[in-house]
Design brief:
10 strands, alpha+beta, single chain, flat, 24% helix, 242 residues, 29% strand, 7-stranded mixed beta sheet
Length: 242
């Protein structure tokens, strides 16, 4: 699991076990609520959903959990996400405070800065949920600075709460299979946005390469913005058909 993104922030997508004694401190915390599911067996729930505003910024957060995932790898990841989200929010607050200091130092006023209405969001999206598989994505971003976007992907085998890898999905030759597919898809792209290898373009995936599982059950490999293509390409995605 890749823990460092282009922003230098540590982030990981995860699932939580419910703890009865959890102290929810934000004043606008709301009750845990269920989301619709595809498979009807497991449930992805919004564990915490809250909004905090202090005049300079508004932080909106939704954190996922998998109902009943209490052991094994999922438990390990569950224990990570609270710290990960807290670290992201703290780093965002530091960045915004530094921005405010620079803004005021160059003649801006408190009222003008407050009028910017800066927003920080942490949210998640379920990509695939079946009886045996859960794939979800956690995203953090600040609307004043596009370079602060952080994404992390997590894929879980619900039979034993283990992490699903590309090798599990594509077999022992998964690197070559994925590389050939990605190179063919880039070659057929006419946008001209992808870097060539000499410019730092795509060469190969690694065991740490990010991916999610789509509803067809295929892995979709995702690269960070600017990683293998110009910014106009966004975050390139490549479905690898099994």
């Amino acid at each position: 699991m890749e823990l460092e993104k282009t922003t230098g922030l540590v982030a990981a997508c995860a699932v939580f076990c419910f703890t009865a004694g959890l102290n929810i401190s934000p004043t606008f915390a709301t009750d845990m609520q269920a989301n619709p599911v595809l498979g009807g067996i497991s449930r992805v729930l919004t564990f915490r959903s809250y909004e905090i505003s202090d005049g300079d910024k508004t932080i909106s957060t939704e954190i996922p959990q998998v109902d009943g995932a209490e052991e094994g790898n999922s438990k390990d990841v569950n224990e990570q996400i609270q710290k990960i989200v807290a670290d992201y929010e703290a780093k965002a607050a530091e960045d915004i405070e530094a921005y405010k200091e620079a803004f005021l130092a160059t003649g801006g006023t408190e009222e003008e800065f407050e009028a910017k209405n800066i927003k920080v969001n942490v949210d998640y999206e379920v990509k695939c949920e079946t009886e045996d598989t859960l794939s979800l994505v956690l995203t953090g971003y600040e609307d004043w600075n596009a370079s602060t976007v952080v994404t992390e992907y997590y894929n879980i085998n619900l039979k034993d709460n283990s992490e699903i890898t590309l090798e599990d999905l594509l077999g022992p030759d998964y690197i070559n299979i994925a590389n050939e597919s990605i190179k063919a898809q880039i070659a057929s792209d006419s946008s001209g946005l992808y870097f060539d290898e000499e410019m730092g373009g795509f060469t190969t995936i690694t065991p740490e390469t990010n991916f999610y599982i789509n509803e067809a059950g295929n892995p979709v490999i995702v690269f960070q913005k600017y990683e293998i293509a110009a910014g106009a390409a966004g975050m390139p995605e490549f479905e690898i058909t099994k």
